[in-house]
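dumping this here before i forget
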Amino acid sequence: MTVIQQVSVDRMKIIMFLPLLLLVCSFSADETETAGQQPCPQDIHAVLRELTASLAVQNERITVLQRENQELEAKLESQKTEMNQLKQLSEEQAGKLKTELQNQRTEANQMKQQQHVTQVAFSASLLEQGYGDTGPFNGRTTLIFKHVVTNIGNAYNPYTGIFTAPVRGAYHFDWKVLGRDSTHTGAYLFRNEEKIFFAYETQSTGWPSASNGASVLLEVGDQVSVRLWAGSRIYDNTEHHTTFSGHLIFTM
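structure:
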């Protein structure tokens, strides 16, 4: 039980006791008159004054305690609000810290990926094993260089014969083709569907061969391939005569 509740109980006891006291005093007065004695109004008034003073004190105590209780409740509410603000601030700071850590991880991964991307080089020959001719075909045909010697960065696909630029930059490519028992042999270097350079050789007998090289600017996703000239036939064996190579010179 709180102090305010206790004071209220005391006050109620006094209020409840007052009518009873008045009744007793009235009864006593009647008996006194009956007995031929005069009542003592001064005693009744003294009791009433004491009760009234006690009630006033109790009322004052209740008022003070109520004010103190209101101040305490206001203080607790203020502390609760402050705690909520601190909690919210802590959550915001934690969110900002989490976001900053994620950004740092993303940046580190991008730097790591960029470091790997800047290391791009490949070299491959036409046949994986054995020997034989490729062509002739009616149209330009993409050559698939299956025997991969180097493929740093995995930008060259040995199943399609296509090199895909992983980063914007300047690249250099070399290609060579060897013919057999043919008067001519040749192959183009293509960037996407754009013909860049042509390597071509013709001779009446023997083994005609042709080679060329080019440095080109590639955007991310650009594709580079070597395509056999229509009607041309090329040859390769375990000596790897027909080749395709390329590497990144620098990023841009």
